[in-house]
């Protein structure tokens, strides 16, 4: 496997795994908020704002994974090194 | 020092957002009336909403931070929303802008803490029991540095990630589907500016109150 296919593979697996936890957490947030709203519809406005803020905080974990993936794909710090290794292996 | 092409774009659009906000405020405050209508009414409703959130979160001594918090919110909101127009680049999709904003907030929290508590501000870092304070000190230092990272990366990742997603979808399906992502982007733009404002209020409040 060469350097670039390893990068793409790492990016795909990393983003997929990074989306699992925030997905579960976000589902729990929305589920509890819906439960609270259906029990007390009068408080739904306040619950909705708090839910959005909390959801954004959880979602940011997936965004960190996205940032790392974008670094791997577009701004890999080991690109030069990887290309050099490839040249040596190619010989 | 050489400036990359992307950063020149960011600087230009930052100036555009600044000019927009300045002109909007000048137009809104020209000829103030006690019975506001039109633009003045619109701006007053935004400002009073921010003020209500501020006093709910920080109590009565939060008033002195109103200018900073409201400026951060309005600047981030307009910068995020500008990215929804085709051809415009949101300044917050560049890590330098968001890092600068996060540094302002985090440095300010420590300035507020030292100003308010003096030398005993160090109690914030030492935890409740003295024999564990060496460990808690290290953890607290790391957590305070990670605030810079999380504040800047959250905003950058959301807005920059949205730009990348829009770009990829435009390449795959140029009709109708980018519209759905743009609606999502509108939601992200508003929520992320609110979250940045909310977190900076909580951080400043945490430094200002007594050590737990």
Beta-strand content of chain A: under 5%
CATH-derived architecture of chain A:
Up-down Bundle
H/E series of chain A: HHH
Fraction of residues in H or I helices of chain B: over 70%
* Structural class by SSE content of chain B: mainly alpha
Query: What is the chains' assembly state?
Result: heterodimer
User: What overall form of chain A do the CA principal axes indicate?
Assistant: rod-shaped
CATH homologous superfamily caption of chain A: F1F0 ATP synthase subunit C
Q: Uncertain segments of chain B of ≥5 residues (pLDDT<50)?
A: none
Helicity range of chain A: over 70%
Strand content of chain B: under 5%
The radius of gyration computed from the alpha-carbon positions of chain B, rounded to a whole number of angstroms, is 20 Å
- CATH domain class name of chain A: Mainly Alpha
Structure description:
The complex is a heterodimer of chains A (91) and B (212). Chain A is an all-alpha fold and 91 residues long. Chain A has one domain: F1FO ATP Synthase (Up-down Bundle), CATH 1.20.20. Chain A is built from three helices and no strands. The model of chain A has no long low-confidence stretch (mean pLDDT 86). Chain B is mainly α and 212 residues long. Chain B has one domain. In chain B, 74% of the residues lie in helices and 0% in strands. Chain B contains six helices and no strands. Classes of the chains: A mainly alpha (91), B mainly alpha (212).
